[in-house]
């Protein structure tokens, strides 16, 4: 692995020559970005054999675990790295996977919003009322921002899905913590969650959330990562050994759910690892151009980009205290420098991200 260090700090300026406060606020945070190697071919799930699937899922999760622990080794060098030891872009990684999970869950609920519509609803609505699909997106956005403490996270996720009356968070937490390994913990806790609820798509979505929380708790991750719902859309879960009558996918009530969970996490971690490789490269580019930014509050805007899937100029202007025009110029400059992308493809109401 190669490490890109921030440029050396210059000598302190005398009080008489200190730049104005707005200029000093523009200085980007010092940070480090670790380049990630692609997932080895042998760790990619490609077989329906249950033993092989479990091995590959474990290997993939171990390598993904190294990514989540591959941040700054000492002090918290950037406010974007809220969790000590995680790379600065893991907030964006979690929120982008949350969007993919919500996209699948909207399809599961037969709602018509796709990922682009869900992103618009979340970032352009300003936190106001949203659609049923947007509500499910907010479930994933919420739980990836919470520490992986099972009781409180389970209660809040169940409450957002309207299932809090049926859920005994303490019992689910006990099921998750007493399993012998992370994959079994995810499978048993999600199956138990499904048994507690009346059959419904929201109950199944809650089971995916429970599985990810149980996995994160067992692996001692700072916050959960949306993985199981992302993998459930994969077509390989509808054929071969996993094929069900009518071509449906595995469900938490199935007898072979633990084996399906292992296979699904093997698929999910391949996608998550590839996304992390891409985000690490983009984050490295953003870090390298950040010293060129002179706009007021540019460092805080960079932190917003590290922390979320998308940022609008209006949100950045509100958070940092820029004018709308200055915020748009800052994002245009970052795009011109190749550090970020415009995500909406529109001429108006644009959104930007890694």
Distance between the termini: 21 Å
Count of DSSP-assigned helices: 14
Q: Secondary-structure element order, as H and E?
A: EHEHHHHHHHHHHHHHEE
**In one word, what is the shape?**
globular
Mind telling me the C-alpha Rg? 21 Å
Q: Which stretches are poorly predicted, pLDDT < 50 over at least 5 residues?
A: 1-16, 18-30, 73-78
Q: What is the typical, i.e. mean, pLDDT?
A: 81
Helix content: 40-55%
- How many DSSP E strands? 4
Side by side, the strands of the main sheet go 1-2
Tell me the structural class. mainly alpha
Assess the beta-strand content as a share of residues: under 5%
Main sheet record: 2 strands, antiparallel
Structural overview:
The chain contains 14 helices and 4 strands. By secondary structure, it is mainly α. The strands form 2 sheets. It has a two-stranded antiparallel sheet with strand order 1-2. The chain starts with a strand and ends with a strand. Residues 1-16, 18-30 and 73-78 have low confidence and may be disordered. Residues 1-30 are annotated as: Disordered. Residues 1-16 have a biased composition (Low complexity).
